[in-house]
């Protein structure tokens, strides 16, 4: 039986043929270009290109899809950093520190940190995919509803605890997101919730519309409201490369990110959203420059971006070995497999060995192409900031509207988009962070479903939510996060008391 290394080398031989290289490069370019447009992420790109690939043979089609996936993730982080407008949900965290960096004239450095982070994350993630796919898949099979719920509660608590000027505002934002997530049909009873009798709302509000509304529309309205009070001068682009200090502060987050991202990508727990938030929390806790967070700390770009890329590789584990799509892109790719009469699952590596290993090899190639194409282009992308802001944000409103309309082709989607945009504007006005609302909309319905499933399994006993070692461990971490501010209050005071005692002793000696 051939080893994974031998099969991977065969995959490289297939993926490095001139035509397949063209498909990989085309996928990366299309993914980046489409990811840059607010609201049009890689999932929509793959879905739109599905009909185009009918004439292609499967290997070429999936090599292009992989390029679109990784390219779309980087493209989404580009608009997050430069315009505070994520192209897709995995790029939401990049806006936290990347956009303040761009406003300080360090947009090129933020983009370079993101590009290198994506490359390192993809390299480590795909290597782990090659080596550990069967093991990670077997672990993922054993994770049940209480464990999924615990992980999502951890994501909710983590993101509300580190963002905004107060925890109360963070939880208020979380509540807004959970409320939006309730809109639509109850999956278990079929009853309508918060639809106001409007039939189109029975399907709920698409996450893309909420993300684009809160970020793109809310940001545009906020800037427009304050345009008279600001100078309106173009933001300087800055030098294109990372300095020694930037590299010193980035290399550890680049390596930590994949450790967080890959396992979360491999289990059905919401794709790259949870690990990117956890990576941000981790970097903030470990950084020596805590005062810079919220004002443009490069660690807050490097870590989450490496995490997102590794999570994308991890997503392929459960999709290829179990046939379980954990993200929207994986779901569309699963449909593409079925389009070719191929069923992902435990036997895929045996029945379609050439296709699978060519796909994995193309991910290595695509990540290299992504770095080669986008690192030199960082200053070019950063020049988007030099467009006069009235034109820039008018363009964002235009593309955001097109992206929202493309989701369902309904004029009601546009109305919902601008209502959500007004909510985003109000949240900025009253100091509520936007991110908890986004993660609540993304994970809220799934968390509710997992909670009800766990309660059903335990016949309504609350103990059914915490009856596994994994869930107990996660809830212990949640309690630590909640209790940490109370614990931290005593530590500085004790230190201050000790210092005061030392001063008193010194005075006494004198």
TrEMBL record:
Organism, scientific name: Saccharopolyspora gloriosae
Source organism, top-level taxon: Bacteria
Name used for this protein in its record: Putative tricarboxylic transport membrane protein
Pfam families cross-referenced by the UniProt entry: TctA
TM segment ranges: 21-50, 62-83, 110-133, 145-163, 168-185, 205-225, 317-337, 357-378, 390-408, 414-443, 464-487
Location of the DUF112 domain: 21-439
Keyword Magnesium appears in the UniProt entry: no
Keyword set, alphabetical order: Membrane, Transmembrane, Transmembrane helix
InterPro entries: DUF112_TM
């Amino acid at each position: 039986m051939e080893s994974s290394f031998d099969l991977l080398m065969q995959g490289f031989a297939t993926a490095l043929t001139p035509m397949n290289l063209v498909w990989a490069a085309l996928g990366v370019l299309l993914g980046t270009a489409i990811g840059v447009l607010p609201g049009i992420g890689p999932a929509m790109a793959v879905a739109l290109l599905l009909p185009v690939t009918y004439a292609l043979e499967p290997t070429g089609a999936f090599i292009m899809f992989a390029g679109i996936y990784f390219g779309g993730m980087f493209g989404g982080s580009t608009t997050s950093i430069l315009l505070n407008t994520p192209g897709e949900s995995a790029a939401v965290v990049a806006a936290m520190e990347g956009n303040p960096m761009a406003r300080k004239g360090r947009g090129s450095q933020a983009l370079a940190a993101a590009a290198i982070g994506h490359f390192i994350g993809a390299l480590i993630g795909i290597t782990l995919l090659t080596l550990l796919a069967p093991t990670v898949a077997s672990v993922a099979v054993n994770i049940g509803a209480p464990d999924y719920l615990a992980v999502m509660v951890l994501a909710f608590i983590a993101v509300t605890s580190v963002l905004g000027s107060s925890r109360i505002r963070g939880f208020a934002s979380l509540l807004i997101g959970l409320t939006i997530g309730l809109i639509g049909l109850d999956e278990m009873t079929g009853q309508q919730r918060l639809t106001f009798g409007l039939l189109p709302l029975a399907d709920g509000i698409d996450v893309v519309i909420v993300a684009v509304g809160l970020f793109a529309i809310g940001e545009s309205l906020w800037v427009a409201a304050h345009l008279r009070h600001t100078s309106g001068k173009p933001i300087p682009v800055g030098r294109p490369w990372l300095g020694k200090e930037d590299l010193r502060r980035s290399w550890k987050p680049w390596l930590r990110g994949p450790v967080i991202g890959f396992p979360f990508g491999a289990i059905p727990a919401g794709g790259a959203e949870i690990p990117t938030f956890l990576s941000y929390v981790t970097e903030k806790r470990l950084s020596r420059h805590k005062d810079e967070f919220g004002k443009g700390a490069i660690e807050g770009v490097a870590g989450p971006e490496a995490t997102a890329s590794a999570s994308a590789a991890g997503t392929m584990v459960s999709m290829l070995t179990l046939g379980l799509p954990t993200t929207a892109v994986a779901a569309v790719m699963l449909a593409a497999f079925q389009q070719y009469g191929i069923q992902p699952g435990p036997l895929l590596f045996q029945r379609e060995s050439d296709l699978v290993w060519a796909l994995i090899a193309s991910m290595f190639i695509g990540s290299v192409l992504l770095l080669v194409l986008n690192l030199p282009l960082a200053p070019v992308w950063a020049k988007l900031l030099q467009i006069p802001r009235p034109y820039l944000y008018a363009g964002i409103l235009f593309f955001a509207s097109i992206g929202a309309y493309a989701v369902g082709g309904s004029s009601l989607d546009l109305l919902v988009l601008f209502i959500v945009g007004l909510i985003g504007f109000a949240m900025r006005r009253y100091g509520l962070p936007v991110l908890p609302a986004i993660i609540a909309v993304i994970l809220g319905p799934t968390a509710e479903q997992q909670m009800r499933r766990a309660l059903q399994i335990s016949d309504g006993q609350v103990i059914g939510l915490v009856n596994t070692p994994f869930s107990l461990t996660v809830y212990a971490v949640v309690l630590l996060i909640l209790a940490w501010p109370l614990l931290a209050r005593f530590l500085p005071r004790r230190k201050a008391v000790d210092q005061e005692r030392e001063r008193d002793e010194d005075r006494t000696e004198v």
